[in-house]
Write a structure and sequence with these properties.
Length: 339
């Protein structure tokens, strides 16, 4: 059973204690999912921060209030970023410059962040347009998605040139407590979560969320990969690597207890979605046509593009398992069908 131990949510520019030396920050986002949780941890001679918020004025203003009211004149000496998405990594460069902080990330996430903050290239644009065309999307959606995705770097501050590399099972101290790195895949290629056995606290990032399923998508350039397979493997491994008693600090929604129950729910959710999408492939179908049947019709342009890439992750997983075939039809569009 999922239980939420905190009835109050910190407002913009405020912090709330959730465990010894661990404080909850909530930053605004300009989307339907309108917030991200960050975690500020008391460290030796200062603070360690987990994730940063998006590069936008509302977040910078909130940080100014936190710096003035809550840091007690101490620096953020270390910034740990769970993965490359702009709501997590967007202000990493801005904050490391402000505090001369060290940036800690996994290698793949740092490389992906560096790549995307550089802005779109002609090769990237060509790949995106080709990808969504092969998914069977109408021209209007392809152009809208390309335009939206082309502005990704506007939500990012420049990524630092150097970083400390985080790897699976790496152990280090933050202040008085020891934390262990758990690398996950699916939502991002090398996502970092952190667990403290002494505190029995898991900083889950986007790998485990209590009320929504993390987006698991197949993106341009990844057409041979199986991100959903990676996500399911990670979700199962967390059950064996972590205790059911942990307080989970997710990047969205509220902190919660009930980790193992939630992990089971996430696995069952994707099994159900796989069955539903397989049922839509009785006849040869494009990814776009399956998306329009599998998701709500009231999605905005960004949500529709992510629904499409998530549909492709599910379809590609079933192809990898031999449950579906994927061919290219006479119009150059991927066609999925039950085997």
């Amino acid at each position: 059973m999922i239980k939420y131990p905190f009835s109050d949510i910190p407002g913009p520019g405020e912090v709330q204690k959730v465990a010894p030396g661990v404080f909850w920050i909530r930053m605004p986002l300009p989307f339907r999912l309108n917030h991200i949780n960050l975690w500020l941890i008391e460290d030796t001679d200062g603070w360690t921060l987990i994730d940063t918020g998006m590069a936008m004025d509302e977040a910078r203003n909130a940080w100014s209030r936190i710096i003035e009211k809550h840091l007690n004149g101490q620096k953020i000496n270390r910034i740990i970023v769970t993965h490359f998405h702009s709501d997590h990594a967007g202000l990493a460069g801005w904050l490391t410059d402000k505090f001369s902080s060290l940036l800690w990330m996994s290698q793949t996430e740092w490389e992906r962040t560096r790549l995307l903050t550089g802005g779109p290239t002609k090769a990237w644009s060509k790949e995106v347009l080709k990808f969504f065309k092969m998914a069977g999307c109408p021209e209007k959606m392809i152009n809208e998605t390309h335009s939206l995705w082309s502005e990704y770097n506007k939500r990012m501050s420049p990524t630092p040139d150097l970083h400390t590399r985080l790897v699976d099972d790496m152990v280090f101290n933050i202040g008085k407590y020891t934390w262990r790195v758990l690398i996950g895949t699916g939502h991002a290629p090398e996502h970092v979560s952190l667990y403290s056995e002494e505190l029995d606290v898991l900083i889950a990032g986007d790998q485990v969320l209590p009320r929504i399923s993390p987006n698991v998508s197949l993106f341009p350039g990844d057409s041979g990969d199986d991100p959903l397979g990676g996500f399911l493997k990670t979700t199962s491994s967390f059950r064996s690597r972590l205790p059911s008693t942990a307080l989970v600090l997710p990047s969205h929604n509220e902190p919660f207890f009930g980790l193992h129950d939630r992990l089971v729910e996430l696995i069952e959710h994707h099994k159900k979605r796989l069955d539903e999408m397989a049922g839509l492939c009785i006849r040869s179908s494009s990814a776009y046509s399956i998306t329009t049947k599998a998701f709500s019709p009231d999605l905005d342009s960004l949500q529709l593009s992510l629904a499409l890439t998530e549909t492709l992750a599910h379809l590609n997983h079933m192809v990898s398992k031999g449950r579906l075939t994927r061919n290219i039809d006479n119009n150059g569009i991927w066609a999925f069908k039950n085997t």
